[in-house]
């Protein structure tokens, strides 16, 4: 994969942040506002709101205007092919279930693939005023207090690790349920209900292991640069690249990740 020139990288990072601001302008007026919720799931409850769709519309419009040759893959409107080696992978509201409950753990995820590799990632939570940003060589968090460099805390012992996942209800396959149970008993503690926030907090040095099942690419692509630039590791449960989604796990250090994969492997 060719390296991006620094000036181009800076432009793309700035634009990704601009996209997250445009999404926030559509989403925030509808948060905790009693909006209509539809269920797009065929079997399970999978909510979607006008905020999800309006935010993705805004993002797509800006990308088409600025970079008409770039591809787009979004949760609500699928794929738009482009001729350039860039594809924007977007989830306008990750954590829509939290969003409709009024819980401020939802976020907007904006990732950029270059020649198939995640190079830029933004996770924005505008209600609490936190934005996590990563380019090819840096990762930081922006708040009203300024900018802080992201650094995973490097925990290398499973028994000392803090784990987070969205909900145990999604661990329906026997291997999945056994893996979650094993990690719960081998680690210090586990917390639920964090959606994409868990992966950003791992990059910021607050937790050590984040995992989920059946993730789509738009659930994880934006988070990969954040975790890797902060010194963490993120793969599938089988140790493969995470950018295509699936059962995903991230760890705060390579040593810890190796131990986690051994636990997951033992449940297959």
TrEMBL record:
InterPro entries: His_9_proposed, Inositol_monophosphatase-like. Keywords: Hydrolase, Magnesium, Metal-binding. Gene3D superfamilies: 3.40.190.80, Fructose-1,6-Bisphosphatase, subunit A, domain 1. Its cofactor is Mg(2+). The keyword Hydrolase applies. Mg(2+) 2 binds at residue 93. Mg(2+) 1 binds at residues 75, 91, 94, 219. One of its GO terms (molecular function) is histidinol-phosphatase activity. The keyword Membrane does not apply. Belongs to the inositol monophosphatase superfamily. This is Histidinol-phosphatase. It comes from Kaustia mangrovi.
């Amino acid at each position: 994969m060719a390296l991006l020139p620094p000036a181009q990288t800076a432009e793309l990072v700035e634009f990704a942040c601009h996209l997250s601001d445009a999404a926030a302008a559509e989403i925030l007026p509808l948060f905790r506002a009693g909006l209509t919720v539809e269920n797009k799931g065929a079997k399970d409850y999978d909510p979607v709101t006008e905020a999800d769709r309006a935010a993705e519309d805004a993002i797509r419009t800006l990308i088409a205007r600025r970079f008409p040759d770039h591809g787009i893959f979004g949760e609500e409107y699928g794929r738009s092919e482009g001729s350039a080696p860039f594809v924007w992978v977007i989830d306008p509201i990750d954590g829509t279930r939290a969003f409709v409950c009024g819980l401020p753990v939802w976020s907007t995820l904006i990732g950029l693939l270059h020649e198939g590799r995640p190079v830029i990632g933004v996770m924005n939570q505008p209600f609490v005023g936190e934005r996590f940003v990563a380019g090819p060589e840096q990762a930081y968090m922006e708040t009203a207090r300024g900018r802080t460099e992201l650094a995973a805390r490097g925990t290398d012992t499973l028994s000392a690790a803090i784990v987070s996942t969205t909900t145990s209800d999604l661990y329906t396959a026997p291997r999945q349920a056994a893996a979650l149970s094993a990690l719960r008993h081998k680690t210090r503690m586990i917390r639920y209900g964090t959606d994409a926030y868990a992966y950003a907090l791992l990059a910021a040095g607050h937790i050590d292991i984040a995992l989920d099942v059946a993730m789509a690419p738009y659930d994880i692509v934006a988070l990969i640069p954040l975790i890797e630039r902060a010194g963490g590791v993120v793969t599938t449960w089988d140790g493969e690249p995470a950018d295509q989604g699936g059962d995903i796990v991230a760890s705060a250090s390579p040593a810890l990740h190796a131990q986690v994969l051994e636990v997951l492997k033992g449940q297959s």
